[in-house]
Amino acid sequence: MGLxxxxxYWLGGSIIGWFVKGVLLExxxxxxxxxxxxxxxxxxxxxxxxxxxxxxxxxxxxxxxGVIVASPLIFLELWHxxxxxxxxxxxxWVFWIVPSAVGLFVVGIIFCYMLGPRLFEWFFGLNKAxxxxxxxxxxxxxxxxxxxxxxxxxxxxxxxxxxxxxAVGLVSSDWLLQQWKGAVVVLLAAVAIFSPTxxxxxxxxxxxxxxxxxxxxxxxxxxxxxxxxxADAREEATSEAASAPPVAIDPNDFYRSLAEPKS
Length: 263
Known about the structure:
Blueprint: H1 2-19, H2 21-38, E1 46-47, H3 53-82, H4 94-130, E2 136-137, H5 138-155, H6 158-167, H7 173-178, H8 180-194, H9 200-243, H10 251-259
Parallel strand pairs: 1-2
């Protein structure tokens, strides 16, 4: 039923996206148009060469918008899926894990959106230096941007995923730091393989971003581990005090202390 509810949330968000697809299209065109202005291009034509290209593009925009809008409910469903494997205390983490997951996902998309003009400025500058006119197929451009949004949004979940694994004791910050060379190789290869684009600049930017997130995760995990050790120490001290045997008091000693003259 969890997957069915996720599909319903996604469908609801996509329906909303369909009704605002015009506004979303204008927003998606801005990174390329701003990049073109930065290199002095007066116009940037967008073309559709397929009879159903506009329909497919509008559906893609609505679908990705649906994921973004429904992300709080989607992450909540994923949390309910993982919840049975957690202990009682760990189940209360929903109050910070779900908002954090949504926030990181949105921050990743915003980061990609604001980075877009610089990326296209480099593309257009290279085209201009080669004497090639810049003209885009709108469907291909929109697909490119939507893939970038999803990639960056999911990549920004890396700190939260590693912190969660550290909190449940599956990994530690020391272990991640010891394995950093292997992790760097794996992350760089994963970005190159799953990147939505094949150009070196975009892949390099994504690789740098993922590596920064990895080492940021280690720093955040150290903070979490330090707080957890303090909480465990307090809990242990409290349990020891509660389990300590009561001190026996001799009633005769008490009455003798009352009878003794006060100095």
